Amino acid sequence: MKLIGSTTSPYVRKVRIVMAEKKLDYQFETEDVWAADASVGAANPLGKVPRLMIEGHETPLYDSRVIVEYLDTLSPVGKLLPPSGRERADVKTWEALADGVLDAAVLARLEATWPGRGEGERSQAWIGRQMGKVEAGLQAMSKALGEKPFCCGIHMSLADIATGCALGWLAFRFPQLTWREDHPNLARLSDKLAQRPSFKDTMPG
């Protein structure tokens, strides 16, 4: 398998962590989706990473949620998704929440930094709206986590990987946010996950 993506993308990082936790072999090829000569659009019509190339298959897999769900079926090592039912839905809901926080934060950052817009063209109202979603998402995660050791109970799952990637990217791109002080239970979870080799080896930046 070959994974194509960016070392700073939290969605790519989620896939890389799943690969490491499940001890899967793969090649990692970096690609800048913003480069003028980027080929990502030819393989993913949405022009995004990650995408996973699988030997013997012409069409790649794309979207991190699709990729990690597929990867979890490849090995019984480190199962990250319950097989079915409400437990599986709970993990996937956590993943959707964490990815949704990232989606909003990415939109806010692009509005503030994308070189294709002049300073007078940037919308502070749009940035504020997206950052409001980030804060609401963090509050929801903190409330749902409570005092549990992991997002969905006593074992690490895909919910924790997605949440850890979201928190790690916020710390990387939005160091001014005070989520660690505002939500100490999320900070504890983030610190615990950061000790795992899979998280250490994929730190952005």
TrEMBL record:
It comes from the Bacteria. It holds the Pfam family GST_C_2. InterPro entries: Glutathione-S-Trfase_C-like, Glutathione-S-Trfase_C_sf, Glutathione_S-Trfase, Glutathione_S-Trfase_N, GST_Omega/HSP26, Thioredoxin-like_sf. CDD domains: GST_C_6. Residues 1-79 form the GST N-terminal domain. Residues 84-205 form the GST C-terminal domain. Gene3D superfamilies: 1.20.1050.10, Glutaredoxin. This is Glutathione S-transferase N-terminal domain-containing protein. It comes from Comamonas endophytica.
